[in-house]
């Protein structure tokens, strides 16, 4: 390889790639457009409250990433295990999540409708449930959970989050993210209050004393990041990256973690078919409204899913229930997530007021509560939409980038629905391939 490995973007994927390249003795330069590394794994302190870019909870399912984060990066003492306490607010009640296996506490007519639907769906199935059908996410829901669960939660919640109706989505994103209880589990969860969480995120890790940024910092302290350096053009034939400040750098191998459509737009010589594929990629953005309430602990739960289209946010969460250190004593640190995108405009200035009104209508905020801190983060393209175009388009783009010696990794580099552990692991793999 002539020239260094150049990594664009110092989120977890880029940091991990640079860290592992350095460990392997590969010359590596890491560039980041923002003023500090971390990407979405950063935390902001406002008036004694600490906010992440919405809840960022760490799941380490691979022994390799566990050893890397906890031992090699020395974070064993910083992170503590936390048991999930997630809820759903629907039909005027707050009940446990996931909706499909925790119907207990919903109005009886809703429970009956959901159970009848699940039973009918179960009887219609030819044999034991293995993987979902290759059809739409809607078809999967109707076949596996039935009409009631779909209409009462899955349809409104997913339409609100993704900005796309489930009938236009594939099932490819589901993986570990959508729990698939069997019929007996659905019935059990309707008859009994089952506090014990299940699924991949039943337990997670969260920093004891500060926000999630401690994870990114552990990498960033071990690699050099050139911040405030935005890549604006890539010339694969000359193997050079051009930056907004006029600087350039030559590379032997290039790893990009920036969003895939933006990368395509800046690579010189991208064929029309690749540009057309990039134009077909869709995502839903999130306006993250964070509030610090100084006078009381407003909620003991960690987060609540909100499918109701009449409320502006699809989820509200409480950082101080991940770690008490995230709010001053006796206060609350919370986040509300509002999804928006093409065809779903948002009035960003009015959003905090709408959030406060929504929280009041849910009984979470009271008129006398003191909002002592507010910070709004605009997370563009937060959730990649898995429609029928996504798979073929990403495949075409990645194949062309590969032919140009460019590796595009990370949640937005691969244009996928994935988590922090995946970003770290993709960094490991990218360094190995480079
Ligand atoms: C709302 C939300 C909630 C989430 N919750 C969780 C959770 O609870 N648990 C979990 O494990 N994961 C969660 N995730 C996923 C997690 O945030 C990602 O998996 C992870 O941050 C991806 O890291 P990355 O390095 O791929 O991307 P990023 O963090 O986006 O890093 C990419 C970096 O590239 C930089 N960049 C972009 N363009 C340029 C350019 N032209 N030049 C130079 N630099 C550039 C950016 O500034 C950024 O720093 C959540 C994601 C979202 C959106």
Protein described:
A seven-stranded mixed β-sheet has the order 7-6-15-16-17-14-18. It has twelve helices and 19 strands. The protein starts with a strand and ends with a helix. Helix content is 31%, strand content 22%. A hairpin with a 2-residue loop joins strand 3 and strand 4 (49-52). The protein is globular, with a radius of gyration of 22 Å. It has 434 residues and is an alpha/beta fold. The protein has helices at residues 12-23, 63-72, 108-124, 137-144, 147-162, 183-191, 213-220, 260-266, 272-279, 351-361, 390-403, 420-433, and strands spanning 5-8, 28-31, 43-46, 49-52, 79-83, 86-90, 93-96, 203-207, 225-226, 231-235, 240-243, 248-250, 253-256, 283-293, 303-305, 315-318, 332-340, 371-384, 406-408. It folds into three domains: 5-41 and 64-69 and 209-281 and 388-433, FAD/NAD(P)-binding domain (3-Layer(bba) Sandwich); 100-189, protoporphyrinogen ix oxidase, domain 3 (Orthogonal Bundle), CATH 1.10.3110; 283-384, Protoporphyrinogen oxidase, mitochondrial, domain 2 (Polyamine Oxidase, Chain A, domain 2). The model is unreliable at 127-133 (pLDDT under 50). Bound molecules: flavin-adenine dinucleotide (FAD). Flavin-adenine dinucleotide is lined by residues 8-14, 31-34, 39-41, 54-59, 230-231, 257-258, 286, 379, 382, 410-412, 418-421, 423.
